[in-house]
Amino acid sequence: MHWSIFLEQVPDGDVAWWRMLASGLLWTLATAACAWVVAFSIGSVIGVMRTLRRPWLIRFGNAYVELFRNVPLIVQFFIWYFVVPGLVPAVQDAVSEMDPTLFQFITAVVCLGLFTAARIAEQVRAGINSLARGQRLAAYALGLRESQTYRHVLLPMAYRIIIPPLTSELMNLVKNTAVAYSIGLTELFFRTREMGEITFRYFEAFAAATVIYAAVAFSANRVMTWIERRTAVPGYLGAHR
Amino acid sequence: MQLTVVAALGGTVFGTLLALARLSPARPVQLAAGGYVNLMRSIPLLLVIFWFYFLVPVALQSLTGADRPPRIGAERSAYITFVMFEAAYFCEIMRAGIQSVSRGQQGAAFALGLTYTQAMANVILPQAFRNMLPVLLTQTIILFQDVSLVSLLNVTDFVGAAVKIAQRDSRIIELYTFVAVVYFALCYLLSELVKRLQRRIAVVR
Q1: I need a labelling partner for B151 at 20 to 30 A (CA). Which of A98, A190, B7, B143 fits?
Q2: Low-confidence residues of chain A: pLDDT under 70
Q3: What's the predicted TM-score (pTM) here?
Q4: Chain B, 133-162: which have a CB under 8 Å from a chain A CB?
C-alpha cells in the first residue's frame, strides 16, 4: 500500500494525481447529467407514444426500444463514434472542425442518452399502464383533451410510481459512463487506468475509483429517495412510511 | 458466447448461495453478503473487470507464496470476473424469487419434518427458480451484451475480433455495423423466446 501516491505529481504536468481523478470525476458527472436530460426527455416522449392509441406511433416506439436495448452499449459507442461520422458527411464536416475532446463528450452524451432513453421509455410506459383505467376515463369525462389528460392526470402519477426504477436507471447511467473510456473520453475510469499504468499503483488507483463510484451511487440513491418522499401523494403509494 | 453460458451458470449457483446468505438468520452472514452485493452493484462492470484482471494474480501470489504473480491471462480472469459479478445480480433475483414463495410452503415443509436444507432444496428453491426463470434469462441476455466489454481487455470475443479485423483492413464502418446487426438479431430473437417461455410456464394461481 502506498496511499501518498495521490499527492504525488503527475510526470508531465504540475498537478497531483488526486486532481487528475477529480477532473475525471467531473467529466463523469457532466456526461451523466447531460445524458440524463437527453434520456429523460426522449424516454418520456417515446414512453408516452407507446401508450397512445395510434398503431404507427406504438410501432415506432417499440422499434426504438428494441433497437437500443438489443445492441451492447460498447457497440453503440463504436457506431456513434466511428460509423456515424463516416456515413453522414454533414457530421463529418462538423467533427473535423471540432475539438476532439468536445466530440468525445458529445458522442458519449448522445450515445448514453439514447441508450438510457430506451430503458426510461419502457418504465414510463409501464408506469402509465399501471394506473387504473378509470383515471384516464375520468379525465376525458371532465372534458380534458388527450394532451391535458397526460399533462395533469396520467404523467404526474406515473412519474411518482416509477421513481424507484428510475433511481436504478440513474445509477446504471453513472456506471455506464465508464464505457465512454473506450472512445477515449477522459472520465474517471480513464484517469484511473492511466494512473495505474503510469505509476503501477493499480491497487490504490482502483480502490480510489471504487470508493468514488460507490459514493456517487450512494448519493444519487439518497437524492432520489428524498425526491420520492417529497413527491409522495398523501394517502397513496406508501406516503406515510 | 461460452463466457456467457459459464457466467450465467456460475452466477446462478453463487447467486443462489448469496441469496440464501442474505436471508439467513445469522446477522454477520447477512451483512457480509449484503455488503458484497451492494458493492458489486454500485461500481461499473468495467472497473470490476480491471480489478480482477490486476488483482487476482496478486491475490493468488500472496496465497500460494510464489515469488511472482502467476500469469492468469485476460481470458481466465474474465471468467472469474463475470461469475463473481453476475452472482451479485442473480442474488437479488433469487432473493426476490425466494421471497415470492408463500410462507406457508416453508411452514408446511418444516411441519413435515424436513430440515432447513431439505426444505430449501426440495420445496422453496424449485418454486423460486420457476417463478424467476424469465427474469434470470433476461439478465442472461443483458450479460450476453455486457460480455462485449471484455474486448477492452484485448480478449478476442466477437467485438474484440471485429475491432482487430476493422483495424487490419480499415473497414471500420462495415464491421461495426455488422456487429451491431448480429447482436440485435440474436438478442431480439432470445428476448422473444423468453417472452414466449414466460407465457408457457406461468403458474396459474
Answers
A1: A98
A2: 1, 13, 235-241
A3: 0.85
A4: 145-146, 148-149, 151-152, 159
